[in-house]
Amino acid sequence: MHPPEAVHPDFDQTDPSRLGLYADLIAELDHRVGQIMDCLDEAGVADDTLLVFSSDNGGLIDTVPQGCSSGPFRGGFFTPRWDGSTRTAAMVRYPGTVPEGVVTQQMLSAHD
């Protein structure tokens, strides 16, 4: 999440199992991606659409308690020379083309 972090009121402290702003932001993000996927289904183009979900950079910091982690990699958003600033996960959905459940360590490059 890029600053300024702000959650829609529909997700702001509305579930006691979510412990704070970051969890509320993730819940809203999940909901919004679901809305996009629902629109693709309703338009009848979901099976013909490559959906890619990724980040443009690693975490803001490289420690878990603040809400993000670069995993085993050194660095974060403010340390571009280290792997932790550029390595991030991505998910791809393309029914009938990309098999479900595949996990790979292959590289993907996206430039912004």
The helix tally amounts to 1
Rg over alpha carbons: 16 Å
Largest sheet: 2 strands, antiparallel
Query: What is the number of E strands?
Result: 2
* Poorly predicted parts: none
* 3D shape: flat
Fraction of residues in H or I helices: 10-25%
User: In whole angstroms, how far apart are the ends?
Assistant: 16 Å
Protein name: Sulfatase N-terminal domain-containing protein
Family: Belongs to the sulfatase family.
GO molecular function: arylsulfatase activity; metal ion binding
Domain Sulfatase N-terminal: 14-105
Question: Key features?
Answer:
alpha+beta; 2 domains; two-stranded antiparallel ribbon; 2 strands; 7% strand; flat; metal-binding; signal; Sulfatase N-terminal domain-containing protein
Task: Give the arrangement of secondary structure elements.
Blueprint: H1 21-42, E1 51-54, E2 90-93
Antiparallel strand pairs: 1-2
GO molecular function: arylsulfatase activity; metal ion binding
Cofactor: Ca(2+)
InterPro entries: Alkaline_phosphatase_core_sf (IPR017850), Sulfatase (IPR050738), Sulfatase_N (IPR000917)
Task: Provide an overview of this structure.
By secondary structure, this protein is α+β, with helices and mostly antiparallel strands. Helices cover 20% and strands 7% of the residues. The chain has 1 helix and 2 strands. Strands 1-2 form a two-stranded antiparallel sheet. The two termini are 16 Å apart.
